[in-house]
């Protein structure tokens, strides 16, 4: 559905996007992660045919962004991080205006607008003035507008930006539904844990370079050099830590102030059951024994260097 080959964009001496190669299939929800100025928006604008690359190629549903721009714009729904709204319109008038811009037949226009309002759970605001909407409601109306022409590919640039926790949950539900509808979605965000919840794949971009591209589990595994165990015993923490140090699979042991024992295992260790059995056999009742979770934020910090353009 989306394929890029060495996609590159340069502004003067600044290489905003540097030879990005990416392939997304139908139904993929791709989380595009990177700091401000890393190249996310520039990449999306090139895919939406709003910006011409300096080098490389990109295809949307098999169509070239160079030769089939008009066709691609019918296949793509692009939602920028900031978009204008017309305050003197009601919500339904606003959607009908854009439906007409997409050349949707007048006989079908109202029905399609009502369907998209229902999809984004905004039917209750159909007759409200756009100027009366909250930030979260405006974002949902913007998404409904993006979906009017039923695009197969969606490019969503920071759709959860500036939203309160409840509104972010609602946007997350919408993204899941879009994946279930077999839409191919690229969504950029700084709210990393939320991307992990909804995305099938993630990519990390830094200073125009795509450093990481894979499914969420692969990215987590790449970020974790070795397994870290969090262990807590009912009593005699220091003695338990010394006992753990004797296990063959253990690299280092550290006891934190809250009496949590952090155990770093040797690389490529998968079986660490002997640690638990040794502690229990030696008379240390376990109250906690689990792997330290590697989340998307941890992976991002480990796999990137904090560079900006």
Question: Could you characterize the architecture of this molecule?
Answer:
The protein folds into two domains: 2-222, 3-Layer(aba) Sandwich (Rossmann fold), CATH 3.40.50.300; 225-290, 2-Layer Sandwich (Alpha-Beta Plaits), CATH 3.30.70.100. Helices cover 36% and strands 27% of the residues. The model has no long low-confidence stretch (mean pLDDT 87). Helix 8 crosses helix 11. It has 309 residues and is of the alpha/beta class. The chain has helices at residues 40-47, 69-75, 91-101, 106-119, 135-147, 165-180, 192-198, 216-223, 237-245, 273-281, 296-303; strands spanning 2-11, 14-24, 29-33, 55-60, 63-64, 76-79, 153-157, 184-188, 201-206, 209-215, 228-233, 250-255, 261-265, 286-291. The strands form three sheets. It has a six-stranded mixed sheet, sandwiched between helices. The longest helix is centred in the middle third of the chain and has 16 residues, at 165-180. The protein is elongated. The protein is built from eleven helices and 14 strands.
């Amino acid at each position: 559905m989306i394929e890029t080959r060495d996609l590159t964009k340069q502004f003067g001496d600044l290489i905003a996007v540097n030879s990005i190669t990416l392939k997304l299939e139908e139904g993929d929800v791709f989380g595009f992660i990177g700091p401000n100025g890393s190249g996310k928006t520039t990449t999306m604008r090139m895919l939406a045919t709003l910006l011409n690359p300096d080098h490389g190629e990109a295809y949307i549903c098999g169509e070239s962004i160079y030769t089939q721009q008009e066709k691609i714009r019918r296949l793509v729904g692009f939602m920028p991080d900031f978009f204008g709204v017309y305050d003197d319109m009601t919500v339904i008038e606003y959607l009908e205006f854009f439906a007409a811009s997409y050349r949707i037949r007048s006989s079908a226009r109202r029905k399609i607008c009502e369907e998209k309002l229902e999809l984004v759970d905004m039917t209750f605001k159909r007759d409200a003035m756009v100027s009366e909407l909250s930030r979260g409601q405006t974002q949902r109306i913007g998404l409904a507008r993006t979906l009017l022409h039923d695009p197969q590919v969606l490019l969503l640039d920071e759709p959860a930006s500036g939203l309160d926790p409840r509104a972010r949950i609602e946007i997350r539900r919408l993204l899941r539904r879009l994946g279930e509808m077999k839409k191919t979605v690229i969504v950029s965000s700084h709210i990393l844990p939320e991307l992990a919840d909804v995305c099938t794949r993630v990519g990390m971009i830094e200073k125009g370079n795509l450093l990481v591209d894979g499914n969420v589990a692969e990215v987590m595994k790449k970020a974790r050099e070795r397994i870290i165990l969090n262990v807590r015993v009912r009593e005699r923490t220091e003695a338990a830590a010394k006992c753990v140090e004797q296990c063959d699979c253990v690299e280092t042991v550290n006891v934190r102030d809250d009496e949590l024992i952090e155990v770093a295992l040797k690389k490529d260790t998968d079986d660490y059951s002997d640690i638990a059995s040794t502690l229990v056999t030696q008379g240390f009742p376990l109250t906690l024994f689990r792997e330290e979770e590697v989340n998307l934020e941890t992976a991002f910090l480990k796999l990137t260097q904090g560079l900006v353009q």
